[in-house]
Specification:
Elements (H helix, E strand, L loop, with lengths): L1 H10 L2 H20 L2 H6 L5 H28 L6 H6 L1 H14 L3 H23 L19 H22 L7 H82 L4 H27 L12 H10 L7 E6 L2 E6 L3
Antiparallel strand pairs: 1-2
Helix pairs in contact: 1-2, 2-4, 2-9, 4-6, 4-7, 6-7, 7-8, 8-9, 9-10
Amino acid sequence: MFWAALQWLLLRERLLALFVIKQAIVLAFGVTNLGYLKMLFGEGADWPLLDIFVKINNFTYVGIYYLFEITFLSYFVTDKRYCRYAYFALVIWGFALALFFAGFEVIGLQINMYLTLASPIIFLLLVFKTKSAKNVAQGEIPPLLSRKILVSFYLFYLLAAYWVVLPNIGIIKAKDLTLTLAVYVSIISSALMATMLMLRTRNLNRQKAHAETEAGLANQRYEQAKEQRGQQSRFISMLTHELKTPIGVAKLSLDAMGIDGVEHDRIQRALKNMNDVVERCRISDAVDSHRFQVKHQLFDFRESVFECIDLLKNPDRVKVFEGNGFLSIQTLNL
């Protein structure tokens, strides 16, 4: 209980808080069942009031036990629907508690005892819905506790709980050992559960450390990729500047030469293609570096189609048919 309280102060985890509460109730359960109330309160104690306290403690123990175990197993069960089904037992427990306060003490206590009898079976069925370490896919986070550990614990608790509960409901004959066996079972099961919680906390810390390491490596890779993108952007900027200048000079020189006809158009088209390639590289780099903002605007689709056709090596192969606001493009085999 003290270990879980210290861990809760560090982690603030609901499961650890439930374990602390459960162990406190187990401690009160042990004190009452071993007869220490007389030592604590003396002969002048209000025994009817203490009797009610003992009965309520038994109810509280079963309720917090169910709540803790279902919460604990919910970390391992693959399909959470089964955990929601198990919560139905808490509804029955609440009904038994209401019967107890309504004056039907015997019926309420019997239902509470039968819930104690059913709990190990319910939890063992939930354990078989957990994921085995063998079924973990590559790259997937393994379970915090193996199924073998969980099955072994709940099998032990099944046998121990039945040894304690069956005499109390009259199915088997009670012996002197049975009177204190519940306390011993609580001590052993609590120690085993605390051990599993310690293993779970250790594995959880390992997973967190591994996740932090992976996050650090991912951040390092991100910084390296960012630096590479920066170098690429600087290279594209330099390349764009170095190529646009000679292309512009070539265009001016071509116009100054006064060449007309097919040769002039071919050279002009080649220079435009080169300029378009450089521009596409610049835009692609801007998009990759998130420096490019797309602006929507209207354009003349017909004009764009004819501009694309003019850039072809053999524009005569393409025929465009217009009509009723539609363009039909056909490629001819010449």
